[in-house]
């Protein structure tokens, strides 16, 4: 059932459960996904900061290694020598053994240390023997360092070292009396592989990685060894420079996010990258888990809602079925559910009501049968009385005509009149409620017109336009002839003229059958027509009150109208339309043969 209670209960439960699950699931997923995204951004930032911090600490540790060299009196003494003078063997030996060796031993990742004085002093030492050693190239490299204004008393990192695969950690040595006056430079050649070992230990998921570029876009570290030492693409480098300290995307790198941060100590920029798919995988897993749990919970909740709804609706359906059977006339008691709740109380009340109704209906039915029998007898008597009210003057006048013709001459006219009158009398005096066909009514009018020919002393033909398909349809006995007689009496009060016509026609709609009698006589004025139609509408009340109509000519019409209503019901009968000086049309409305109705008793 479209609007059944179980459907409504189930729909309400579904709405409540689905709304709750969607609200909780969407809210939880939204909050969790946002938290995960924030955690990933924080994790990415934290990893970059840690890598930068560890790198800076690693490089700063060598700044402390230079302190032991800077405070060495031998170094200071060598730097204070006059220009172009050479220190003795003892001084050079002390510088190599007593100053450089401890630094090289404690920091094996340093391949080469050197001090170059502006006075021409030069001292170098190696952790390993490098062959061949290009001293001329070294001298040119040192001269470039001397002229580099970016190098000062602080430790400076040069990513392009004198030795391949090394970083140069270099600083200028200041004069004792002035920190702005430099007397030489000191440098370390540091294996960059040590930093690579540090950077390789940083994990950014399965597909995440990071790389380091200097301030000129040169790649110092990359997971792909083939890219180390090469220049970063110009567009990529511009994007990195423009998006420091925030999440961004690189052109040509779909499905990945990047985060960059620049070290204030080394001047290097570390760029970390993670896959969006890998980053969103926990969110996807969370979404999938939320959907699965939500669907499972929804199915379970719907099952429980269905069981709960059935526990409520099942007794209601029992009551509904009992009421339906009772409505059909089968007094049905509904069994109790055994739950002893409000539904059982309702069923008990219903059973009590059915028992009392059954008793009352039996009493009413017995009384109605008695009243029905009495009413049927009264209606039959009333019908017979109405049918016998047909104006007897016509019969009297006809008999007078017969007498006149019989006295004057012996003719066939008498035979025709007597034969027609005999048929009409036999047809009229029957008082049963039997319905006859349209053909029988038309035959009755034929005999009536045969008599009227002699009475009016002229021929008059009625225009019958009824289709042959309707001749076997049923109608009430003696309904057309009174209407035709009423036309001769009232529509043509000054006699019949050649222009006068009477038309009888019929048609059907979906449920009813209509027969009309139409004339072009004098018509009825509006006031009289209104009174006549009112009397037709109130004819049953007048009949029950046994009042007689006073409108002239309405006795025959009311007689026909009342007999039709007695056979078919009060919604059927006559209706009249008329225009003064134009004519009158009387319509008989009856049920069609395919949908005959019997008057309710």
From TrEMBL:
Claim: Transmembrane helix is one of the keywords in the record: yes
Pfam families tied to this protein: dCache_1, HAMP, HATPase_c, His_kinase
InterPro entries, sorted: Bact_2-comp_sensor_kinase (IPR050640), dCache_1 (IPR033479), HAMP_dom (IPR003660), HATPase_C_sf (IPR036890), HATPase_dom (IPR003594), Sig_transdc_His_kin_internal (IPR010559)
Residue ranges annotated for the HAMP domain, each copy included: 310-362
Family annotation (SUPFAM superfamilies): ATPase domain of HSP90 chaperone/DNA topoisomerase II/histidine kinase, HAMP domain-like
Entry keyword Transport: no
Keyword annotations of the record: Cell membrane, Kinase, Membrane, Phosphoprotein, Transferase, Transmembrane, Transmembrane helix
Name this polypeptide is given: HAMP domain-containing protein
């Amino acid at each position: 059932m479209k609007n059944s209670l179980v459907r409504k209960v189930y729909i309400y439960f579904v709405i409540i459960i689905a709304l709750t699950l969607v609200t909780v699931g969407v809210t939880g997923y939204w909050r969790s996904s946002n938290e995960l995204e924030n955690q990933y951004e924080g994790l990415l930032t934290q990893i970059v900061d840690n890598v930068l911090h560890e790198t800076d600490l690693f490089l700063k540790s060598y700044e402390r290694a230079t302190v032991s060299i800077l405070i060495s009196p031998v170094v200071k003494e060598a730097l204070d020598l006059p220009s172009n003078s050479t220190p003795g063997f003892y001084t050079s030996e002390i510088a190599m053994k007593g100053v450089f060796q401890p630094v090289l031993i404690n920091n094996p990742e340093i391949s080469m240390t050197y001090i170059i004085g502006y006075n021409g002093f030069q001292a170098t030492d190696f952790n390993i023997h490098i062959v061949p050693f290009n001293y001329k190239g070294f001298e040119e490299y040192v001269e470039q360092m001397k002229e580099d204004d970016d190098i000062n008393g602080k430790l400076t990192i040069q990513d392009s070292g004198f030795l391949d695969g090394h970083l140069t950690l270099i600083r200028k040595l200041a004069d004792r009396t002035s920190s702005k006056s430099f007397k030489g430079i000191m440098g370390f050649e540091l294996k960059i592989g040590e930093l690579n070992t540090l950077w390789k230990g940083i994990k950014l998921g399965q597909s995440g990685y990071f790389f380091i570029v200097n301030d000129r876009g040169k790649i110092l570290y990359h997971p792909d060894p083939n890219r180390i030492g090469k220049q970063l693409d110009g567009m990529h480098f511009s994007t990195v420079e423009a998006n420091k300290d925030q999440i961004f995307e690189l052109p040509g790198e779909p499905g990945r996010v990047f985060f960059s941060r620049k070290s204030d100590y080394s001047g290097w920029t570390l760029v970390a990258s993670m896959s969006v798919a890998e980053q969103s995988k926990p969110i996807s897993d969370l979404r999938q888990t939320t959907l699965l749990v939500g669907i499972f919970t929804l199915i379970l909740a719907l099952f429980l809602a269905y069981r709960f709804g059935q526990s409520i609706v099942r007794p209601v359906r029992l009551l509904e079925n009992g009421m339906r059977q009772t409505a059909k006339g089968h007094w049905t008691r509904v069994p109790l559910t055994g739950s002893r709740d409000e539904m059982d109380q309702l069923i008990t009340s219903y059973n009590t009501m059915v028992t009392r109704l059954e008793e009352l209906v039996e009493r009413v039915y017995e009384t109605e049968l008695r009243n029905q029998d009495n009413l049927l007898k009264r209606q039959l008597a009333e019908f017979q009385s109405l049918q016998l009210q047909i104006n007897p003057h016509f019969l009297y006048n006809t008999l007078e005509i017969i007498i006149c013709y019989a006295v004057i001459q012996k003719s066939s006219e008498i035979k025709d009149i007597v034969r027609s009158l005999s048929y009409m009398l036999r047809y009229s005096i029957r008082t049963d409620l039997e319905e006859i066909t349209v053909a029988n009514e038309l035959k009755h009018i034929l005999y009536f017109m045969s008599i009227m020919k002699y009475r009016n002393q002229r021929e008059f033909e009625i225009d019958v336009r009824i289709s042959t398909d309707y001749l076997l349809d049923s109608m009430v006995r003696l309904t057309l002839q009174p209407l035709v007689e009423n036309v001769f009496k009232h529509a043509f009060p000054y006699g019949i003229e050649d222009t006068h016509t009477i038309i009888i026609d019929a048609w059907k709609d979906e449920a009813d059958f209509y027969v009309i009698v139409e004339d072009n006589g004098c018509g009825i004025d509006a006031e009289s027509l209104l009174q006549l139609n009112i009397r037709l509408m109130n004819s049953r009340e007048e009949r029950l009150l046994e009042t007689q109509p006073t409108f002239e000519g309405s006795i025959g019409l009311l007689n026909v109208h009342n007999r039709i209503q007695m056979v078919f019901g009060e919604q059927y009968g006559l209706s009249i339309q008329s225009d003064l000086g134009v004519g009158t049309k009387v319509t008989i409305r009856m049920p069609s043969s395919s949908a005959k109705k019997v008057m309710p008793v």
